[in-house]
Design goal:
Blueprint: H1 2-13, H2 19-35, H3 47-57, H4 67-76, E1 96-101, H5 109-123, E2 127-132, H6 146-163, E3 167-170, H7 176-186, E4 190-194, H8 197-200, H9 206-213, E5 217-220, H10 223-233, H11 249-258, H12 260-272, H13 278-287, H14 299-302, H15 308-311, E6 319-324, H16 336-346, E7 353-358, H17 364-374, E8 380-384, H18 388-397, E9 400-403, E10 408-409, E11 412-413, H19 419-426, E12 431-434, H20 439-442, E13 449-452, H21 457-469, H22 471-486, H23 490-509, H24 516-521
Parallel strand pairs: 1-2, 1-3, 3-4, 4-5, 6-7, 6-9, 7-8, 9-12, 12-13
Antiparallel strand pairs: 10-11
Helix pairs in contact: 1-2, 1-3, 4-11, 5-23, 6-7, 7-9, 11-12, 11-18, 12-22, 16-17, 16-21, 19-22
Length: 557
């Protein structure tokens, strides 16, 4: 069956030159839809085939193993074989894990998060199975009707009855009631992923509130999201474990191939300098470096990266500001308008400046009119939606990344994590982000980028000017941004998946008030959220006090 599935997967991406080719693809699709319920995993030869299999199967059933993730794991762990780390469970009867996902056909961070969860669980020695709510992909403004909800619940319950998983993971807060039902009926511990503003608002449905408050473990992607949810859910800290999100393995793979020396230096620096360790950050703080950069005396050991201008391949003298985000008129919190105004003011100082806006949506016409009003339409390019390969070329030509997203709790909107800052960082591109929400954790102020007030045009302009005008500082910020991005690479994410599963297994044997956060942290610590100016002891899990949040404001004081 495994061999037939590989052949079928290759047939999906084979060029169609005749009706016979179309017949082959049709038969391959039928086989894969059948095999998804019986295969342990699909193991294609390349990412394009993996994406095609995922599209056909809808991400349902057996996990699809993306070769880029295995390649990245091999670079991080040279001794690993075929992407399977030393953390694999000892030989025994495989335990099952049930993963609840929204969909696998829509391109986005949450969808990738669910896919990588399934792959990581499989590589750790579990039998992972995924049940998808939207089999055909999420449609704009789509709502979950009673029939779809009932089918999803019955499918998930049937899989749980057959597979008897040791844990259930709801990769979105909206799926948590199904996880609670399975846990209640079958006595299986479950975890709920918490991403961004969809978790910040108090759920209107009682079933979601109940599922969140009674979850064995909450796994938010940021410390900020954890504290916001703890305010309305009254959940003990010991029942939470911050995992962070996951950097796209394909983008990391492309960045590593484009700049192998810089990537290798960052990879070695992360392990040798112990960048993410609190003791290192405290050491940097004690060094009292006025620029906010760590000492780089180890450059001769790890290899000096090429200058950012050369390694990122943009034309000599051209300076490109990049923003990657959806353009939604109902959620303009990404603050493209603020960056446009900053570009208009900086244009005189930087004659060869340009602004690249990646993404599409209903907000695009308004931004295009604003660019014309400000007189910068000739240096602003709206690309629309791009593939990951096309997006990689944009990151490779960028001088800096800018997205100072506003944060608000009423209405709930903002960055729960800020994955795009990491995508820019893996290419050595420093970011300008907002001094609030998850972006203030992803971008370390003065280390891997600069933070600005998302309601201050002058603050955003000053931050951009600081990066554009100082090549040396830009290189240092870019170098540290690449190291920061590696903290959320697939191998680290897989370690955190292991920590979550270990904690959920312990929940079956532990009392209701067990400290599952400590159990998970014994396998892999939560990702550090400190900045150079905020080196606080994190072993006790203390996060910022949210009592100072103005719920209608964009800034956390």
């Amino acid at each position: 069956m495994r061999r037939l599935s590989r052949v079928a997967g290759r047939a999906l991406v084979r060029p169609i030159a005749s009706s016979g080719g179309r017949t082959s693809r049709y038969l391959a699709s039928l086989w894969l839809k059948f095999a998804r319920y019986f295969e342990t995993a699909f193991d294609p030869d390349d990412d394009d085939t993996a994406a095609a299999i995922t599209f056909v199967t809808g991400g349902i059933g057996a996990p699809v193993l993306f070769p880029s993730a295995k390649a990245v794991a091999a670079w991080h762990e040279p001794d690993s074989r075929a992407g399977r780390s030393e953390d694999v469970r000892p030989p025994q009867k495989p335990l099952s894990v049930l993963i609840l996902s929204t969909d696998s056909k829509t391109y986005g961070g949450i969808q990738r998060y669910a896919q990588m969860w399934a792959q990581a669980a499989y590589e750790l020695g579990y039998r992972s199975r995924t049940v998808v709510l939207w089999r055909g992909g999420v449609k704009p403004e789509s709502r979950v009707g009673p029939a779809r909800a009932a089918r999803f619940l019955l499918t998930a319950m049937a899989v749980a009855l057959v597979r008897r998983p040791v844990a259930v993971v709801a990769t979105h807060i909206g799926l948590s009631p199904v996880a609670w039902t399975i846990g209640r009926v079958l006595g299986i511990p479950y975890a709920v992923s918490l991403h961004g503003d969809d978790s910040w608002r108090v759920p209107t449905k009682k079933s979601i509130r109940r599922a969140v408050t009674r979850a064995d473990l909450l796994i938010p992607v940021s410390h900020f999201t954890r504290e916001v949810v703890r305010r309305w859910a009254d959940v003990r800290l010991e029942r939470t474990y911050v995992t962070g999100s996951i950097l796209s393995p394909r983008l990391e793979l492309l960045a590593a191939r484009a700049e192998p020396e810089s990537y290798a230096a960052a990879l070695e620096s992360r392990s040798s300098v112990a960048y993410t360790n609190l003791r290192c950050l405290q050491h940097l703080h004690e060094s009292r470096i006025p620029t906010g950069f760590p000492p780089w005396d180890r450059a001769s050991e790890v290899g000096e990266p090429a200058p950012l201008e050369a390694s990122n391949g943009h034309e000599s003298g051209v300076q490109t500001i990049l923003t990657v985000a959806r353009l939604d008129a109902n959620a303009p919190y990404k603050r493209h308008d603020l960056v446009l105004r900053a570009v208009a003011e900086l244009r005189a100082k930087y004659p060869r400046l340009r602004y690249l806006v990646v993404g599409d949506g209903s907000y695009r016409p308004h931004l295009q009119r604003l660019a014309e009003t400000l007189g910068v339409a000739d240096i602003v390019e709206f690309t629309g939606k791009l593939t990951e390969d096309e997006l990689a070329r944009c990151y490779g030509t960028a001088t800096c990344f800018a997205m100072p997203s506003r944060i608000s709790l009423e209405p709930a909107e903002g960055e729960g994590f800020g994955l795009v800052y990491l995508e820019a960082g893996i290419w050595g591109v420093p970011s300008v982000a907002a001094r609030a929400g998850g972006s203030a954790e992803t971008v370390l102020d003065g280390i891997s980028g600069l933070l600005a007030d998302p309601d201050s045009p002058d603050g955003v302009k000053t931050a951009l000017d600081s990066i554009l005008s100082d090549p040396a500082r830009r290189r240092e910020l870019g170098r540290m941004a690449r190291i920061r991005a590696l903290e959320f690479s697939y191998p680290r994410f897989r370690r955190r998946v292991k920590a979550v599963l270990h904690a959920l297994e312990a929940a079956r044997r532990s009392p209701a008030d067990a400290d599952l956060r400590s159990v998970a942290s014994s396998i892999e610590p939560e990702y550090p959220r400190f900045s150079l100016c905020d080196c606080q002891e994190q072993s006790n899990g203390e996060s910022p006090d949210l009592e100072s949040i103005d719920e209608s404001s964009s800034v956390i004081t």
